[in-house]
Amino acid sequence: MELTVLADNNTLTDRYLLGEPGLALHLRLPEGDFLLDCGYSDVTRVNATRLGLDLTQLHTIVLSHGHLDHTWGLPYLLALFAEHATEGRPLPRPRLVAHPEALTPRFFEGQPIGSLLSQDILADHCDLTLTREPLALTDRLVFLGEIPRRPDLVTPGPVGERRTPDGLVPDTLPDDTALVYRGTDGLVILTGCSHAGIANIVERARDVTGEDRLTAIIGGLHLLGPAPEGLDATVDALAGTGVTALYPCHCTSLAAKIALNRAAPVFEVGTGSRFVWD
Questions:
Q1: Which residues are 227's β-sheet partners?
Q2: Which is it for the CA torsion 239, 242, 245, 249, positive or negative?
């Protein structure tokens, strides 16, 4: 699997690419190209063009959860599809995979922070698969579905509110999920924001795949301003997993990255970063 970071809070020196407070990860596998999240704006589309990646040929788009910094890039992606279709260029119809709650309206201090596109609109452009259950996307790549929150592991608190048939409720992000790639040397976990708690995500990945070896974790870890005791507990939990490399980005502070280095070597990530796992 070849992974390219198309959107992240960080950019890399001497790489003339764009950054934003969002995340998008491009995956290239033998079965085709996959995209985990779409960032906040057109940054994902612009960076893909600069890096020579053709997003019109995506096999599958996956949403890690429904927040704006992971879904608001979708309209720019659909506009790209429309432009190619208008010019008569070959355009496969991509699949879009997400938890059923990922497209639910959500708010923070009264401001909308959920998906701009409804399920009906997305169904006009993509083949939708909305599931709470784990789903094999290829022989090696798995969508983890809803992540159980274990009481003995750190789980971040609610963020804003989510609309339900009974009205607004504190948003615990039940849709927050991740991908796991079964590599030769163990699991590679790809996460958007880890609202479910990265330790919970690791346990879910192990349960779903039956593999205990953990090669790497890449993505947002929801560690922007954690309480010291919560950060220490997360570091200890990750250290206990035996993970051999960490690639924290997006919603992870410098202080958290320094602390995480106690669990495993921490590597730099930014827009344009490329990594390969076999």
A1: none
A2: negative
What whole-number distance in Å separates Cα of residue 171 and Cα of residue 63? 17
Look at residue 209 and tell me whether its pLDDT is greater than 90: yes
Helices (H), ranges, 58-135: 68-71, 74-86, 119-125
- Measured at the CA of 270, the angle between CA 76 and CA 228, to 5 degrees, comes to 110
Residues 13, 251: Cα–Cα separation, whole Å: 20
- pLDDT score of 258: 95
For the stretch 213-268, pLDDT in tens is 999 999 999 998 777 678 999 999 999 999 999 999 999 999 999 999 999 999 99
Block residue for tokens 């993970």: 243
Q: Exposed/middle/buried for 270, CB within 10 Å: 0-12, 13-18, 19+?
A: middle
pTM: 0.96
| Residue 230, pLDDT score | 84
Classify residue 117 as left (phi > 0), alpha (psi -120 to 50) or beta: beta
| Strands across the sheet containing 274-276 | 127-130, 95-98, 58-62, 32-36, 24-29, 2-7, 274-276
Confidence of residue 51 (pLDDT cuts 50, 70, 90): very high
Q: Going by DSSP bridges, is the β-strand pair 214-220/186-191 parallel, antiparallel, or unpaired? A: parallel
